[in-house]
Amino acid sequence: MNNFQYSRASDVADAIRLLAADPGAKLIAGGTNLIDLMKENVERPSRLIDISRLPLRDIEETADGGLRVGALVPNSDLAYHPLIEQRYPLLASAILAGASAQLRNMASVGGNLMQRTRCAYFYDTATPCNKRSPGTGCSAIDGLNRNHAILGTSTSCIATNPSDMSVALAALGALVHIAGPSGQRTIALTDFHRLPEDKPHLDTNLGSGEIITAIELPPHGFARNYSYLKIRDRLSYAFALVSVAAALELEGNAIVEARLALGGVAHKPWRSLEAEAALRGQAATPDHFGRAADLLLQGATARSHNGFKIELARRAVVRALMQAASATPQSQAHKKIA
Amino acid sequence: MNAYVGTSTSRVDGRAKVTGAAKYAGEFAADGLLHGFVVEATIARGRIARLDTSEALRVKGVVDVLTHAHRPPLADKDEAWKDEVAPEKGSPFRPLYDERIKFNGQPIALVVAEDWETAKFAATRVHVEYEQEGFATDLESERDKAEKVDQPHKPRGDAAGALTRAPVRHEADYVLPTEHHNPMELFATTAVWDGSGGLTVYDKTQGVQNVQKFLCSVFGKKPDEIRVISPYVGGAFGSGLRPQHQVVLATLAALALKRSVRVVLTRQQMYSLGYRPMTIERVALGAKPDGTLDAIAHEAIAVTSRYEDFSRNDTGWAEQLYKSPNSNFSHKLVDLDVSTPCDMRAPGAATGVCALECAMDELAVALKLDPVDLRLRCYSDRDQSEDLPYTSKQLRECYARGAEAFGWSRRNPAPRSMRDGKELVGWGMATGVWEALQMPVAVRIVLTANGHAEISCAASDIGTGTYTIVAQVAADALGLPIDNISVRLADSTLPQAPVEGGSWMAASSAHAVLRAAEEIREELARLAKAMPASPLADLDAANITLTDGMIASSDGRGAAVSIADVMRHSKLERIEREKLNQFAEDKSHARNTHSAVFAEVKIDEELGIIRVTRIVNAVAAGRILNTKTGRSQIMGGVVWGIGMALHEETVMDHRFGRIMNANIAEYHIPVNADVHDIDLIFVDEPDDRINRLGIKGLGEIGIVGVPAAIANAVYHATGKRIRRFPITLDKLLE
Ligand SMILES: Cc1cc2nc3c(=O)[nH]c(=O)nc-3n(C[C@H](O)[C@H](O)[C@H](O)COP(=O)(O)OP(=O)(O)OC[C@H]3O[C@@H](n4cnc5c(N)ncnc54)[C@H](O)[C@@H]3O)c2cc1C
Ligand code: SF4
């Protein structure tokens, strides 16, 4: 761990000023990811700007019937908030599928969006990694890549984004509110994370001096027909090998609207408008779900150890859509996949 | 009197543990305490070409950086580095000894600073250049370099010939991965400098006297100059049997700087200590159609380091279990550029019996026999290697009671035949076996006139419950309430005990307590008889017993005097007795514990998800001293067995020779959601031959057989035989 300076931001503008003043500075919220990475010498901020006391902890209804969630709302509070439970249970479920109760108590919305990959080489400073040290090479491509991406990879990085919450947010069409030196802006969650391309050291499109202030959920929460299905190496407290956020709007058995996003398979939550369009107007049947899964997984490529993920993702998509269609979402408390 | 032995007595140290009053090695304070942080090698083999500590030394708060080139003297003979548990063959690892790098993660420097964070920070400012050399860390690619070590058991008959002639054969490789212990408590040592060359060393260890002797020989100290204490151990499972490098480093730094020093390893750094070695187990069975065996051949190929030969008995267990006129066993080692493996719960058996029991299941399928039935047809009442009877062996009863509790008779033998909704249901079973060892242990009892007794012994309690069983046995033997007993353990100045391991400590310490208590009883009887007008005067000392705080006639006639009265009368404040208990050598019988494990899995085949919904483990292990701590032992073993079957695996990138999941987020062990019903049965197993109390020990038997029972259940559910552990979902989807 490096020595660092510590400042407590008094308000958002102060945080932005502090960021601009020290290019090596980093924001800290719950610290559950950043501190671990500092202990491993992966992150070596010259300064920590503590934003944990900024007034970004509200959950408010927006004029159009959506919700605006402050960037510092703890993951647990968000998952158990009555409005989230009633209107966006897909989001609540995805959050509860992640980490442990203790970690969710500390983790913030902003920190969750910004958490870094769990690629083992990224964590081990004794091995090459383009994401950690640009230009050194990617150890995973020809190495241990069982947990790695099958979609949207590049020749410089095949890491996945580990967040569960983001997968649900992508499916729901959430927005990210950002403040920075040149004012405020809003971008779609699906445009927030980026693919590695030739700059894998950049996880997101957040500018260097910018801070996430809130996320916004659109009015439609798919509260009836949804499921978050996470497949992992043990039944709790493990990162996803594959996860699926599935949401449907049904009239009888006909699909009016469909949302699908995959986690654990790419550098960002993976959504395909084409796959969703293919479901619209169709009957909610395993066949149609399978076809949508194929579209979603178009272009998936296997490395030496992660080939199983392609078929697993396909099956998980179908299962999650079945759970959604029958209004029997996957429970995150049961010791069983339904 | 038997008020406590055999009951479910709560842990006497339970309150101290849950309230935080119990202190662990890394928690002892000392004036002017310094903190050491270990710098580790990042290559697997080669030499340190340059090690520059100047920048680290300039960090404010850093006191010194010890390296091979800058340290006090260390012993230079291998013998001096061989602790009680060191492998016979080899040259033990010596931290900071020279510039050679033998494994990735090897400690190469110790940064010592006024506080831990400073030491940790400065450790990143130690600059190292290496001359790398070619290395190998992959057992499978080096398999053909395997060399045979000692034959664990003599061959009998002609196994190879019998195998070729056998009408029904099964032969396969089973691959068990490297596993790490991951005890909850981090490895830590606080070496407290006494100001004049002596040290009190608080260490996380399974054997304080082993560490004490080791430190004296490594640092050339006299026995009274180093004292080692380890009152509580937060799990060790074998990883604390040998002195680990943090104790050498803390001691080295304390001697170099003449100050107290604490070294705590990080979780990541603990992955460069010992581990259960990856092992390829080849098992061949030849049988007659009636389900009796003609031949058993078992070969194990395991990892060891280039500098020590570590091997355990993986292959010989069939000799204990299944009758076969021909058998052959061999254990081979492959030297790799890794640290030396070490014991881990049921070393050898957890892996070897897993392979054997999977193979037996495959043979049962080939023979179209029920797996329990096959085992009964080959059941051996004698240890075949020495052709000996057992002191006791209630394994038949384990099969019967386990099968009954599990509902085994309702099993449809056909794979894929049982379902529960979307899930396939599989029922599998396996046998477990372990040794019932006992070692010399000495115990001191000090009885005071107020009717309290202090029992002391150098043995460790590694979380297994030694404090509690010692108190139980003493309370019964001295006829005192357990609250009047205090137990002191794990201080090298206390009476002699070996390392706590091999499941031998319960029997060994209990009988040492009995020995010493017997002397106390004799003394009290003598004093009581000598009292004027003693109601016991005309009794033979042998007919006097201790009960309810009284010295009483054992014929129940009611004649009695209180301990307090006798001691007051004899003007004695205390009676002290110390006795070493040695078990008479008896080669006429074999001593083992046994178990029958039944497992139910439910599998979502589409997604490859396996749930272990039920385990019944029926254990025959002599007399159970404490049903509560005993159950906890077995329960922990079963959960670990679930981990062995489905989760645990240390993953190494052989291009770097580095472990890539050195943390407990990525090294998976079962979590609550992976554990369902566990039903434990202690089968009655009276054994008046093994020792006076009939105790066998429970530390390891709980894990043995569990992984195989689960793997066999997975086969029964799916028809897929997965011989490479752990059984992760990708293997099921293949
Ligand atoms: C053992 C373990 C298991 C886990 N398992 C899971 C899992 O299964 N699924 C899952 O989804 N997650 C999992 N997590 C990750 C966890 O969700 C994240 O660590 C957490 O969400 C991060 O939030 P935080 O507030 O603590 O972030 P911090 O650690 O404080 O910050 C993380 C990053 O976000 C930046 N940041 C924080 N707030 C803002 C902001 N407002 N604007 C801009 N940047 C910001 C920081 O600068 C930093 O770079 C696990 C973590 C651990 C340690
Ligand atoms: S996959 Fe990405 S994060 Fe992992 S080693 Fe390659 S470049 Fe680094």
Structure, explained:
The complex is a heterodimer of chains A (338) and B (734). Chain A is built from 13 helices and 12 strands. By secondary structure, chain A is of the alpha+beta class. Among the domains of chain A are: 5-53, Uridine Diphospho-n-acetylenolpyruvylglucosamine Reductase, domain 2 (2-Layer Sandwich), CATH 3.30.43; 225-325, Enolase-like, domain 1 (2-Layer Sandwich). In chain A, a hairpin with a 2-residue loop joins strand 10 and strand 11 (254-263). In chain B, strand 18 (418-420) and strand 19 (423-435) form a beta hairpin. Chain B folds into 3 domains: 18-134 and 183-266, Aldehyde Oxidoreductase, domain 3 (Alpha-Beta Complex), CATH 3.90.1170; 279-437 and 588-733, Aldehyde oxidase/xanthine dehydrogenase, molybdopterin binding domain (Aldehyde Oxidoreductase, domain 4), CATH 3.30.365.10; 439-581, Aldehyde Oxidoreductase, domain 4. By secondary structure, chain B is of the alpha+beta class. In chain B, the strands form 8 sheets. Chain B has a 7-stranded mixed β-sheet. Chain B has a 5-stranded mixed β-sheet with strand order 7-15-14-13-8, sandwiched between helices. In chain B, strands 18-19-27-28-31 form a 5-stranded mixed β-sheet, with helices on both faces. Chains A and B meet through helix 13 of A and helix 4 and helix 17 of B. The complex binds flavin-adenine dinucleotide (FAD) and iron/sulfur cluster (SF4). Flavin-adenine dinucleotide binds next to strand 2, helix 2, helix 6, helix 7 and strand 8 of chain A. Chain B: Residues 140-157 have a biased composition (Basic and acidic residues). Chain B: Residues 136-164 are annotated as: Disordered. Chain B: Residues 19-134 form the Aldehyde oxidase/xanthine dehydrogenase a/b hammerhead domain.
